[in-house]
Amino acid sequence: MNEHSLSAPNCAACAISSTISRVCAFPGELSRWFDSNAQGWAPLFLRVLLAYEFGEAGLEKLNGDNWFADLTFPFPVNLLPADVSWTLATGLEMIAPVVLILGLATRFFSLALILLTVVAIAAVHWPAEWHGLAELWKGYAITDQGYGNYKLPLIYVLMLGSLVLSGSGQLSIDAWLKSQRQPVHR
Fold first, then answer.
1. Quick one: 78 and 168 in the same domain?
2. What is the mean pLDDT of residues 132-153?
3. Cβ contacts of residue 110 below 8 Å, gap of 6+?
4. φ, ψ for residue 77 (rounded to 5)?
5. Are residues 12 and 46 in the same domain?
6. So what's the pLDDT on residue 126?
7. Rounded to an integer, what distance in angstroms lies between the CA atom of residue 60 and that of residue 121?
């Protein structure tokens, strides 16, 4: 045997070992890249999806008839006339999508939409009657089968809650305004 034939298996083993090391290191490298380049983008996806959903609801109200008179709202919303509640809900559902897409006053409008959605859950989506948690759990659905349908609005509340806690992210007017207020350190 010559010296070259003895080193050949080691070179193949080295290449395999090196490849395995690179493959195993890739998730960490990818994670570090996302941390330094794209972490602040995540709220943009929530903002766009929520803007679409609430904008669609606002357009339906804007182009539809006021059906709030047939509902029982929780206190203190029940103190407002149905026409005022309809106008407020429609206005918020028309304005909030625009500012969410822009990332302007995201925490404020997310909180306002949470309040609107909680009222909607109480007045429309919560089951009229339930006798135990098993029956209440049946209302965790998209369509109402006689047990309520609070699943989708609850998902919206949790998504909006994420925006309240995280803010609008890097791709937003909020981030730009914040960068303009910070003093430049020299």
1. yes
2. 85
3. 50, 100, 160, 161, 163, 164
4. -65, -30
5. no
6. 86
7. 18
